[in-house]
Write a structure and sequence with these properties.
Blueprint lengths: L6 H10 L1 H4 L9 E7 L8 E8 L4 E9 L5 E3 L1 E2 L14 E9 L2 E15 L2 E12 L2 E15 L4 E8 L7 H5 L1 H8 L3 E6 L3 E2 L8 H13 L1
Parallel strand pairs: 5-9
Antiparallel strand pairs: 1-2, 1-12, 2-3, 3-4, 6-7, 6-11, 7-8, 8-9, 9-10
Length: 217
């Protein structure tokens, strides 16, 4: 079915199913967006829906695809329930691509800023990759910044995914270090994020056309 299911037909299914994925959110609603991309180059489109906000700068994301019967399904993720997820609502992302006889695989570099308390922030770097209809997150590096003392000076601790100490420069460049060592190709991709409210008042045909414009972008 997937070989004969055109992108137009998939977009029509996504548009018709929007009452499932474009539902109102009651938390972290400062931004509530979606985008469309073929994450693993198999001709099947993935819909990404994310909302972010709140005092802790939390982001929550959901990923959808179309199953063998032509129905919308939510993809499994590697996120721990209740934890802040990567802040993925970005117009451009760095991607490291691997090539093998099994196909092409993209690792999207993503970041997460968490406000733990008024004087403590955690910054995470990780990658997201779609593997067998599951979104996998690979932790790469983390940085904890604590403001202490009478002068409120910043105390920074940076570590890689194995707990090794990193300098500030090593922390920023760690995705390049990690994936270049594996021989992966670096590139930049664009994502067209659109506010969920743009779907308000549209019928199925109009919604499908909006989704087409997003996918083409």
């Amino acid at each position: 079915l997937h070989g004969s299911l055109s992108s137009d037909r998939q977009l029509a299914i996504l548009a018709k199913s929007r009452e499932i994925w474009a539902v109102p959110t009651e938390y972290a609603d400062e931004r509530y967006c979606f985008t469309i991309r073929d994450l693993n180059y198999d001709g099947r489109l993935e819909l990404i829906v994310a909302n972010e906000g709140g005092t802790g700068h939390y982001t929550y994301s959901r990923f959808y695809g179309i199953d063998a019967e032509g129905n919308l399904k939510e993809l499994e993720t590697h996120f721990a329930e209740g934890d802040s997820q990567p802040d993925i609502i970005e117009e451009q992302m760095t991607v490291y691509s691997s090539f093998s006889p099994e196909g092409m695989r993209d690792y999207f570099i993503v970041y997460d800023e968490i406000k733990v308390s008024p004087d403590c922030y955690v910054y995470r770097i990780s990658s997201l990759c779609m593997v067998d209809d599951r979104i996998m997150e690979t932790p790469l590096a983390s940085q904890t910044v604590t403001y202490e003392g009478e002068d409120y000076a910043a105390h920074t601790i940076s570590e890689d995914c194995k707990g090794n100490a990193l300098t500030e420069e090593e922390f920023r460049n760690f995705p390049q270090t990690y994936y270049s060592y594996m021989g992966l190709q670096k590139k930049t991709v664009s994502l067209c994020w659109t506010d969920v409210n743009e779907l308000a008042g549209k019928d199925d045909g109009e919604a499908a056309e909006l989704l087409r414009q997003i996918y083409d972008s």
